[in-house]
Amino acid sequence: MTKILMTSVRDDEQAAIKDYAKQHNIDIITTPKLIDDAIDLTNDVDGLVIQQRSKLPDDIYEKLHANGLKQIATRTAGFDMVDIKKANANGLTVTNVPAYSPRSVAEFALMQIFRLLRKTYRFDQQVANNDYRWFSDEQSMEIHTATIGIIGVGRIGGTLAKLLHALGATVLGYDTNPRTDFDGIVQFVPKDELLKRADVVSLHVDLNPTSKGLITANDFALMKPSAGLVNASRGPVVNTQDLINALKNGEIAAAALDTFEGEETVAAADRREKGLDDQPLVKELHAMDNVILTPHIAFFTNLAVQNMVDFALDDTLAILNGKSSAHEIKL
């Protein structure tokens, strides 16, 4: 019987995993550990499915190869934690799940756009301190009067654009490959123009060498002082220190961050006792009353979790059976 190891498994994934194992008559071993700490479990398995944000150790690829593995499937869209060249050099095919549920992240981004437009972050802070007043600078915008800029109009950004268009917002888009199928929904413009015109900028790009540090001090300087930023893509897309400076200096009004630099040691962790001293930039963001932080949970819906499990396991079985997958990552 085919045996597959799945690492970093959460309780909410177990039902989908058990259903898949039963339907396909395979044995799936699960562990809450990262693959870093579960390498011994690969001695007697055929396939591997991982999920993590931290970088895989450099020596892990040789160990997996020595144990006879042929692939690594990450049940995430991002794959920057895997060294594709080292994996391939050790005979390991790497797959990801690029579209587990574009709607999940798009809906989350839409919620954060609403929160920034309606300035609920201000009222959250005030009410927490038993201050129930409202002030003239807290007057908000209705979505149909707002201009929203989307950087990265792919699966997720495109889904968000359709939702915003249905609500009557003006939607600007910037993408290295503008989409003609979004005529009448998105007005594609240069990045600088988008930053100048948008009331909220929402980021939906993959993390790659060209997108790392995509938003820096020069970009914040172009934005409206009343504008907000949503990042539901990857943390390093934004220069965090530049963002903090822009928020403090009033170059932009607020930010909603589901992804941020340093999250690999913060997201999904209980920091109530330890605090954030080892992540000073995250600590500073956490202390700001115009920042909404969430722990990389935009994807976390019923459909997305099911698809992440199913698609990653589908790819694993395909490769183990000598077939190819449309989700293979090739450099």
UniProtKB/TrEMBL annotation:
It comes from the Bacteria. GO terms for biological process: L-serine biosynthetic process. Residues 110-298 form the D-isomer specific 2-hydroxyacid dehydrogenase NAD-binding domain. Keywords: NAD, Oxidoreductase. SUPFAM superfamilies: Formate/glycerate dehydrogenase catalytic domain-like, NAD(P)-binding Rossmann-fold domains. The keyword Transit peptide does not apply. GO terms for molecular function: (S)-2-hydroxyglutarate dehydrogenase activity; D-lactate dehydrogenase (NAD+) activity; NAD binding; phosphoglycerate dehydrogenase activity. Coiled coil: none annotated. Residues 5-329 form the D-isomer specific 2-hydroxyacid dehydrogenase catalytic domain. Belongs to the D-isomer specific 2-hydroxyacid dehydrogenase family. This is D-2-hydroxyacid dehydrogenase. It comes from Limosilactobacillus rudii.
